[in-house]
Every structure is written in C-alpha cells, then in structure tokens.
Amino acid sequence: MEISGKVAIVTGAGGGIGAALARRLVDGGARVVLADLDAAGAVDVAGPLGPRAIGVGGDVTDEQVIRSLINRAESEFGPVDLYFANAGIGGGAGLDSTDAQWAAALEVNTLAHVRAARLLVPAWQKRGTGYFVTIASAAGLLTQLGSAPYAVSKHAAVGFAEWLSITHGDKGIGVSCVCPMGVDTPLLRGGLVPEGNAAAAELAVKSVTTAGAVLSTDDVAEIVLAGVAAEEFLILPHPEVLKMFRNKASDYARWLDGMRRFQATLSS
To answer: How far apart are CA 155 and CA 175, in angstroms?
Structure first.
C-alpha cells in the first residue's frame, strides 16, 4: 500500500494519534480529511498541513456523518483509499459503569468502525482496492485494568477487524489492526475512566505506564504507516505486547492469575 497520491480519512484527528497520523499522511503525499467531534481541533490540525488536508467536525458514531465525510473527501480529493478508525474514548470503571457509559464506549470504539466499513467496503469491492485501519489497543488483545467498558469495546474492535480481514481480505481490501500500550495522549493522561472514581482511574493509568514505555504520538504514527505500507494485519508499536499475547494464549489460567497479582500490586 503506497501512501503517496492516496485519499484518506482519519477520525479523532483533532489531537493525539489521529493528528500525528494526518501529519504523516500529508508528509507522505496523501490527501486527508481530518474528522473530530471537536471541529475546531480538526481545523487547527489541518490548517498548517496546507491544501491537501481538510478539518471537519462531526460525531463519527453517526452513519450520516461518516457518509458526509466520504462525500467531502470524494468531492475535494477523489475516492477514499484509506480509512483510519482512530476516534476512541475511555469508559466507566467496573460493575458500577452505567448503561450509558457502556453504550458510549461500544458506539465510539467499535460500532463507529462497523458503520464506516458498511459504507466503504461495497465501493472498495467494485474498485478492487481499499484499506481499513483500526486503531484499537493492547487492551483489545490483553485487557484494561480499571475499565471494563474500555477493555470489552477494544476486544470487540479487534474482533471486527479480524472478521473484516477474513471476509474481504481476498477481494483487494487490506485491513490493519493497531494495538499499542501507552501513548502520550489525553486519553492516557486521565481519560480512560471518567471523573468520580479516582482509584479506578489511577489503576487504569498505572497498569499501562508500568507495563512498558509511553510512546509519542509521532512514533506511533510512523510505526502505523510503516505497517500499513507492508500490509501487516497486527501492528504492535510496543513489540512486547506480542510476548504477552502469546503467554495469555499458551496458558490462560496462569495469565489470569498473573494479571490478578499485577492488579493487587498496583492497588497496594
């Protein structure tokens, strides 16, 4: 997958990984529509990138908003080649998480991906080309201490990316699933668990920051685009996640026991 000359949409591009991806894409010769619930943030990131970037506001859990992003990209730049489903939120803590918190996490972290693919894949099948990038989390392969909605919705995002690749990967459609651990973003710095549960919020952050390095968003964007260029399905900015995932799969009971001990250590 060559980036130069391609048309891309990046959600959650008003900051964090999304903004870094948009900058890297434009630097690589792509034309990009940056979408974010924070319209001003998307516009601010797009402005310095010049005429090959457009910032747009909108809630990407809404299928009509996604449709409008695709239409805007097509009218300004041409058919969409790549879609980066990057927008993400935290969620509640544990069993006290409300239905609204569960619904929000699943809407943003999973169902927004489904709705985008629903709109894009038919056209990609006709063209015989297209690329969907799911920005999930290591929590989708392992788990997220301190936040059940985040852990479950990211597992679902990984599962959907797998299904999409299996179902459409032999029809010219590429899929990558990105599963980083700690990345220096507002989400890590206090957004994994909403205000009101300080203990869960501290546990969620410590479980990430003590497990490995906290990478910059630019570093992650570089790794992601290298993985897309190589058409890798599983992109791991933190290579140690693969070892953890293998340990989990090889002895689930031992892994669960180890995670309980890790949680107890962090909570003491």
So the answer is: 16
pLDDT at 188: 75
**Which pLDDT score, from 0 to 100, does residue 191 have?**
66
Q: What is the pLDDT of residue 195?
A: 66
202 exposure class (CB count in 10 Å sphere: 0-12, 13-18, 19+): middle
Contact (CB, 8 A) for 77 and 31: yes
In CATH terms, the fold of domain 7-267 is: Rossmann fold (3.40.50)
How far is it, in rounded angstroms, from Cα 200 to Cα 203? 5
Catalytic machinery residues: 150
What is the C-alpha separation between 25 and 32, in angstroms, rounded?
7
Domain extents in the chain: 7-267
Q: What is the pLDDT of residue 248?
A: 97
Give CA–CA dist 87/135, Å, rounded: 8
